[in-house]
């Protein structure tokens, strides 16, 4: 939370609809979608030139045309019959906000920190169901959420106000305070997808896209955005959305993937650990440096990908910061997207959640003493061993947790409590393929690629989050975003091993 | 007001009697003339040519007498032709098609309503009930300023909407008719609720660089029937000015008038009124006869403003919170029916065939002299017109008129579909309906169209057009991309 007044000012809000009326049956969400209910996805694209200078209504109708392909994006989340979440495809539209930022794009990239960056998207929290209350609606402007909440609690009457992330515990208390006045709070169904256009001084635009994790995971949110840019350029959409996969719903009894199931079971039972104040920093590492490092560890791990390398590196460094106890096992939760570009039961265009969480554990001593190559090798082997059967067996497990009336079980924190590392390697196109899939190809006009991209996952708890993403620079370059507690992050930013990689620091706040 | 005729009239035998009676009375002159002509022809044949010449010689015509008679005949003929009113032709017209980004689905409208009126759930409920029963579809459009939460109706936005709609529709008209802006002699713009200075007609003159001696008029405040009032004005002007073109633009600018308060009676227009506009080219030039689509036959205007209740039934005022809105009174339908009756009484004699008029006369005499309890005869207007364009003021208006005039579903289909696709576009709705009939390929040469519009005040205006040439579908117009989907079945209540 920034103490100062936010530099972002929202000045208008409207709803964007498709060019043709859609409608249709409610879009049902899968078991894995329900499991992600406690999180939200936020994606921010930064552009140097503003393609929407003339205003939304004057620009090409690319978003309206695109939305014809995405009825769930236009719809609203609601409880269907049977108690499970569905997306009612009622054409309600995508809420779009316009804001202006009081600084230039470069200045922002240099000096803004994570909480300020949150102002660039619309944060909605997913109340889930542990409180047993109907969906609370969070719309309106971004203010300091603590003030709003205090007013609401003291006033006992909640109009529409914001609740930021990490508010799982707060919502419980709100219900107690408001008691029977929840009927005054319920305002129809929850929004699904929100878009925010932030204009910087001197040109520059940041487009923030938020949606509940139940509806879309970071990959398909990015693909939606990419389809928008493709439509704006007049090109056909590369990966049109696919909503139903029979393979995903098939029941198969598999013996593989027992580890993942055990891990998920432990996760579901772990209590919510209140996390302290978290901060985020972004490290941009160049192609040449990564190449150098990969060459260094080539002996121990010849097939290492940049993800393996960076996950291992950051894991080691972060563990060193946490006063390691040599008798413990350290775990890294690895989150991998299981979409395959060409083959496999889950194609690239699948609109929904296709993330797989698995656990990699190593002895603390081994982690401390073994070299980077060894750890990278362990990561590599772990990732390489993941097949889609693992995901399907995880899906089966979620399905098996259904109640008697077919209602899915309560969701739990999927990201956390351990240190979680998210891989975006699937977004990197291998050389020579016909369709670029990297998110840095998402240009509204030819030649105006995004200069930076941020992902944020809402409501993350636990030790922290590492995200390894592509960089604007092609090849092996990567951008790593690390979310840790404030003190640990400050130490990490000064860590020698990381400094040796000569990273460019972005969005690190006023450091 | 409407009385259904007793059931025995629907029996088959009586139907043929009725048909026979209609043929007899409507063509009575023919029936009378034929025997006379036959008789004369027989007489002439009987007399023979020589006898006729003798008869003529005996008349002893003088040269002066012949000259005077012929001058008299020529004089009478000249006076007759000079005093005949000029034919007014509707060369063509165009309707506005809003951009798809302005579309307002029901769900979006209700969400915005909930957000803007978050302290008034009862008003939100009311709006939802109205929307469910309104007969509107999911493709109606509102101007961009209203899409914001909360709506931002600035004057600039209103001017922007006016420019988009009016220039769009005039561009389309100029292109369709190959008319040069310099050839426009008369310009009439009507927009009821938005009246800036300089006027909207001045805006048009400025944009298209019209001539400095143009006769421009701007009608404001006259409600949804202002379109036909403008046509009436154009007609009168075209009688005075020979060889002229008149462009009439009918629209309603919604941006500045979107009610932002919570009074229920005033929220009703928000649910129904939508963006739209139309431009018509009228001419009295002879050479337009070839390509003109319609000829104007009658315009009948009825004003019920002398009655206080009628005057106040659509009233713009401030609500207790100071927000300006249009208050619709509960007896709107009754007043509308009354105004319609008044209008029909005037237009009936002008358009109805003699058979219907006689029946009406007999029933009237009968009621006055014999028995006041006789039900008044409602003339069958379906014999006078092939097509009906009823102002799409709302589903209730169309239902009421259908019942009163005993029209079939097909007759009111154009009105219902225009309401579904475009909403209540105020004075331009009649033109969207006419466009629908043309797009369906139903307009043939000689077809008569009756346009009825109601407006605040309370006014009921009618215009009668006769189709000048058959219009082939597919036509270009606002229905171009969606006519294949129509007609749709509009349920009584749409579940939201």
UniProtKB/TrEMBL annotation, chain A:
InterPro entries noted in UniProt: CAT-like_dom_sf, Plant_Fungal_Acyltransferase
Pfam families, per the entry: Transferase
GO molecular function: acyltransferase activity, transferring groups other than amino-acyl groups
Stated family: Belongs to the plant acyltransferase family.
Name under which the protein is recorded: Acyltransferase
Species assigned in the record: Escallonia herrerae
Species lineage: Eukaryota, Viridiplantae, Streptophyta, Embryophyta, Tracheophyta
TrEMBL record, chain B:
Reactions accelerated catalytically: a very-long-chain acyl-CoA + malonyl-CoA + H(+) = a very-long-chain 3-oxoacyl-CoA + CO2 + CoA
Pathway the protein acts in: Lipid metabolism; fatty acid biosynthesis
Pfam families assigned: ACP_syn_III_C (PF08541), FAE1_CUT1_RppA (PF08392)
UniProt-recorded Gene Ontology molecular function terms: fatty acid elongase activity
EC number: 2.3.1.-
InterPro entries to which the protein is assigned, alphabetical: 3-ktacl-CoA_syn, ACP_syn_III_C, FAE1_typ3_polyketide_synth, Thiolase-like
Ranges for domain Beta-ketoacyl-[acyl-carrier-protein] synthase III C-terminal: 386-466
Enzyme class, spelled out: transferase
Keywords in alphabetical order: Acyltransferase, Membrane, Transferase, Transmembrane, Transmembrane helix
SUPFAM superfamilies reported for this sequence: Thiolase-like
UniProt main location, coarse: membrane
Subcellular location: Membrane
Gene3D superfamilies membership: 3.40.47.10
GO BP field: fatty acid biosynthetic process
GO cellular component terms given for this protein: membrane
Domain FAE: residue ranges: 80-368
Coiled-coil blocks: none
Residues annotated as catalytic: 224, 303, 387, 391, 420, 424
Family under the similarity heading: Belongs to the thiolase-like superfamily. Chalcone/stilbene synthases family.
Protein name (record): 3-ketoacyl-CoA synthase
């Amino acid at each position: 939370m920034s103490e100062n007044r936010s530099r972002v000012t929202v000045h208008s809000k409207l709803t964007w609809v498709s060019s043709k009326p859609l409608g249709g049956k409610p879009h049902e969400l899968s078991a894995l979608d329900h499991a992600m209910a406690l999180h939200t996805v936020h994606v921010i694209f930064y552009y140097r030139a503003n393609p929407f200078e003339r205003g939304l209504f004057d620009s090409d109708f690319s978003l309206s045309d695109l939305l014809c392909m995405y009825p769930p994006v236009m719809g609203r989340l609601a409880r269907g019959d049977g108690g499970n979440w569905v997306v009612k495809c009622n054409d309600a539209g995508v809420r779009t906000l316009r804001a202006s930022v009081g600084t230039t794009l470069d200045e922002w990239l240099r000096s803004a920190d994570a909480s300020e960056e949150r102002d660039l998207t619309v944060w909605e929290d997913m109340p889930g169901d542990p409180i047993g209350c109907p969906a609370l609606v969070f719309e309106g402007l971004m203010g300091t959420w603590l003030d709003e909440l205090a007013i609401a609690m003291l006033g006992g009457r909640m109009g529409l106000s914001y609740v930021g992330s990490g508010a799982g515990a707060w919502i419980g208390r709100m219900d107690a305070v408001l008691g029977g006045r929840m009927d005054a709070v319920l305002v129809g169904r929850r929004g699904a997808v929100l878009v925010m256009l932030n204009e910087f001084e001197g040109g520059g635009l940041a487009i923030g896209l938020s949606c509940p994790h139940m509806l879309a995971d970071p990959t398909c949110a990015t693909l939606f955005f990419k389809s928008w840019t493709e439509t704006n350029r007049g090109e056909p959409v590369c990966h049109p959305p696919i909503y139903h996969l029979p393979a995903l719903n098939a029941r198969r009894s598999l013996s593989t993937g027992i580890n993942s199931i055990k891990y998920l079971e432990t996760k579901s039972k772990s209590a919510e650990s209140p996390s302290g104040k978290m901060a985020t920093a972004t490290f941009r590492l160049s192609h040449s440096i990564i190449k150098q490092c990969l060459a260094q560890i080539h002996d121990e791990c010849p097939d290492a990908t940049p993800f393996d390398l960076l996950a291992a590196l950051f894991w080691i460094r972060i563990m060193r910061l946490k006063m390691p106890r040599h008798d413990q096992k350290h775990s890294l939760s690895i989150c991998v997207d299981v979409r395959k570009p060409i083959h496999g039961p889950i194609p690239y265009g699948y609109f929904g959640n296709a993330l797989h969480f698995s656990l990699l554990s190593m002895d603390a001593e081994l982690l401390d003493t073994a070299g980077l190559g060894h750890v990278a090798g362990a990561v590599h082997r772990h990732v390489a061993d993941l097949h889609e059967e693992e995901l399907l067996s995880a899906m089966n497990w979620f399905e098996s947790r259904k109640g008697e009336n077919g209602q899915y079980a309560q969701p739990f924190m999927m990201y956390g409590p351990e240190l979680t590392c998210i891989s975006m390697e699937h977004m990197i196109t291998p050389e020579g393929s016909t369709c670029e899939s990297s998110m840095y190809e998402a240009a509204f006009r030819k030649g105006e690629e995004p200069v930076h991209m941020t992902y944020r996952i809402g409501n993350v708890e636990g030790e922290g989050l590492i995200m390894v993403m592509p960089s604007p620079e092609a090849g092996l370059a990567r951008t790593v975003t690390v979310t840790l507690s404030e003190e640990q992050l400050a130490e990490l930013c000064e860590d020698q091993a990381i400094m040796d990689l000569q990273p460019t620091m972005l969005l690190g706040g006023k450091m | 007001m409407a009385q259904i005729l007793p059931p025995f009239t629907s029996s088959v035998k009586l139907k043929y009697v009725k048909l026979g009676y209609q043929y007899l009375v409507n063509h009575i002159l023919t029936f009378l003339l034929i025997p006379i002509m036959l008789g004369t022809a027989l007489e002439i044949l009987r007399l023979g040519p020589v006898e006729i010449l003798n008869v003529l010689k005996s008349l002893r015509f003088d040269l002066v007498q012949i000259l005077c008679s012929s001058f008299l005949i020529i004089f009478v003929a000249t006076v007759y032709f000079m005093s005949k009113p000029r034919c007014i032709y509707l060369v063509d017209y165009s309707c506005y098609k809003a951009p798809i980004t302005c579309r307002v689905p029901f769900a979006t409208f209700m969400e915005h309503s909930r957000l803007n009126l978050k302290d008034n759930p009862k008003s939100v409920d009311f709006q939802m009930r109205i929307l469910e029963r309104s007969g509107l579809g999911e493709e109606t459009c509102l101007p961009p300023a209203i899409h914001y939460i909360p709506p931002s109706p600035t004057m600039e936005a209103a001017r922007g909407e006016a420019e988009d709609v009016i220039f769009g529709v005039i561009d389309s008209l100029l292109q369709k008719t190959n008319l040069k802006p310099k050839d426009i002699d008369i310009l009439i713009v009507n927009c009821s609720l938005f009246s800036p200075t300089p006027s909207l007609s001045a805006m048009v003159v400025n944009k298209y660089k019209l001539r400095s001696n143009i006769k421009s008029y701007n009608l404001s405040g006259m409600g949804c029937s202002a379109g036909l009032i403008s046509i009436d004005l154009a007609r009168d002007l075209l009688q005075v000015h020979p060889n002229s073109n008149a462009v009439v633009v009918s629209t309603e600018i919604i941006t500045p008038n979107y009610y932002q308060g919570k009074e229920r009676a005033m929220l009703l227009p928000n649910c129904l009124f939508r963006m739209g506009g139309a431009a018509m080219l009228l001419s009295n030039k002879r050479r337009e006869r070839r390509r003109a689509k319609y000829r104007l036959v009658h315009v009948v205007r009825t004003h019920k403003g002398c009655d206080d209740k009628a005057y106040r039934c659509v009233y713009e005022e401030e609500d207790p919170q100071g927000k300006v809105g249009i208050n619709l009174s509960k007896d709107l339908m009754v007043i509308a029916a009354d105004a319609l009756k008044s209008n029909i009484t005037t237009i009936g004699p002008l358009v109805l065939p003699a058979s219907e008029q006689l029946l009406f006369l007999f029933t009237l005499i009968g009621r006055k002299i014999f028995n006041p309890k006789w039900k008044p005869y409602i003339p069958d207007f379906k014999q006078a017109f092939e097509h009906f364009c009823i102002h799409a003021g709302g589903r209730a208006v169309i239902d009421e008129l259908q019942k009163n005039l005993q029209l079939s579903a097909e007759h009111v289909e154009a009105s219902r579909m225009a309401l579904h696709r475009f909403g209540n576009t105020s004075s331009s709705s009649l033109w969207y309906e006419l466009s629908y009939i043309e797009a369906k390929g139903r307009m043939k040469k000689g077809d008569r169209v009756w346009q009825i519009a109601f407006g605040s005040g309370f006014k009921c205006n009618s215009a009668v057009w006769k189709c000048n040439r058959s219009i082939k579908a597919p036509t270009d117009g606002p229905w171009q991309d969606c006519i294949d989907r129509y007609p749709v079945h509009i349920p009584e209540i749409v579940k939201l």
